[in-house]
Amino acid sequence: MTDTRPESPAADHLNALFAQALSQRPAQGVPALRTVPAQVSPAGLPDSAVAVPDIAAPSVLPVGHAVLAELRSRASVKIGEAAGADASMTEQDRRQRGQSIIMQVVSEWATKYAASGQDLTPAQERAVREAVFDELFRAGRLQPLLDDPYVENIIIYGDKVRVDYADRPTRTWDPIAKTDRDLINLINHLARMQGQGERALTPATPNLNLRLADGSRLAASAYIT
Question: Quick check: helix, strand or coil at residue 35?
Fold first, then answer.
């Protein structure tokens, strides 16, 4: 269904920020992504929601993304093996099996991590499990922002990330992906999760529009010089 609702003040603010990001592009062909909530607050963004040149918020994860990538790889292999051994496995079954495998993989890693003198608290180990699950089954590093009910808009241009909030000033954020290629892969991963695997961000189709599972709208572009 086509969304015919008029642009809101929040959407106007998003467009202005996105245009500013484009005017400051570091190189040609950098992938750009923006997400807009399913329903923008009637009040729009508060007057205080202006760009603040602060540093990205620190991550609550006790380890870096390189460790998460390794855990993701280990879990992905095991999940693939489990799916290959059971042809009747549904997507829901795969997710449930994935949770079990991720718990096992992270638990084994945490035991070795603790042996090096770096114990994790239960909350930290849970955060690692959730991050690995997000990488495999949800929106990766983008997921915490999608889960935040106070996030109005997310604007990504390469490694530049700006977030509009309903209750606080706009902020910069940690990069969502390590490289432009990783960002494009994330966008295409989101398309596949919405059952639109035939649609992808490629040189032949440099623009992509999606509605995510939570109702958010996503617009992405890449390969444009």
Answer: strand
- Residue 12 has which token pair? 């106007």
Going by their DSSP bridges, the two strands 207-211 and 217-221 should be labelled as antiparallel
Which amino acid belongs to residue 198?
A: E
- Residue 203's Cβ-side half-sphere holds a number of Cα atoms within 13 Å equal to 1
CA distance 208 to 151: 22
Q: For residue 210, what are the β-bridge partners?
A: 218
Q: pLDDT tens, 97-131?
A: 999 999 999 999 999 999 988 889 999 999 999 99
Show the tokens assigned to 10.
């929040």
Q: What is the pLDDT of residues 173-221, one digit of tens each?
A: 989 998 889 999 999 999 888 876 678 888 998 888 888 888 888 889 9
Cα 182 versus chain centre, distance: 11
Nearest of 52, 20, 58 to residue 171 by alpha carbon: 52
Say how far residue 117 (Cα) sits from the centre of its chain: 31
Cα separation, 161 vs 172, whole angstroms? 6
- In terms of CATH architecture, what is 9-57+142-221? 2-Layer Sandwich (3.30)
Which tokens go with 60? Answer: 């609550």
CA distance 96 to 100: 7
Starting at the earlier edge strand, list the strands of the sheet with 151-157.
171-172, 160-165, 151-157, 32-36, 217-221, 207-211
Q: In the chain, which segments carry CATH 3.30.450?
A: 9-57+142-221
Q: Which two tokens stand for residue 6?
A: 């008029």
